């Protein structure tokens, strides 16, 4: 099971983002097997020390959403790529105003337990 996290800052509400998700996934041509969950705020995120360090960094940057992706029979890196595609489509959507600053980071865990950012 591939797993990845997409941290991003957005002024839209959670409801607005969730309402836009089917369109974003369609535009990004996301596989239907990819399961996503959206969390507003970062205080409820739990994980190992590496993930929690990333959460603390994201909080300092004003990140207010995290999208978790789970993708059966895929690598963590592949899952991160799919989340990255969704977030790129989000920036091009009505969720962001023209020229609004877009800040996001998609991370995934390597086999050795370290976390990498999607390039």
Q: Order the strands across the largest sheet as they lie in space.
A: 2-3-1-4-5
N-end to C-end Cα span = 21 Å
Helix content, binned percent: 25-40%
What is the rounded Rg?
13 Å
Give me the secondary-structure category: alpha+beta
Sequence stretches where pLDDT stays below 50 over 5 or more residues? none
CATH class annotation: Alpha Beta
Using the 3D structure, state the CATH architecture: 2-Layer Sandwich
Mean pLDDT: 95
Along the chain, the helix and strand elements come as EHEHEHEE
**Tally of individual domains:** 1
Mind describing the biggest β-sheet? Answer: 5 strands, antiparallel
CATH fold-type name: Alpha-Beta Plaits
Approximate shape: globular
Multimerization status: single chain
Proportion in β-strands: 25-35%
The number of helical runs is 3
Topology:
Elements: E1 2-9, H1 14-27, E2 35-40, H2 49-60, E3 65-71, H3 76-91, E4 103-109, E5 115-117
Antiparallel strand pairs: 1-3, 1-4, 2-3, 4-5
Task: Report a brief summary of the structure.
By secondary structure, the chain is α+β, with helices and mostly antiparallel strands. The protein has a single domain, classed as Alpha-Beta Plaits (2-Layer Sandwich).
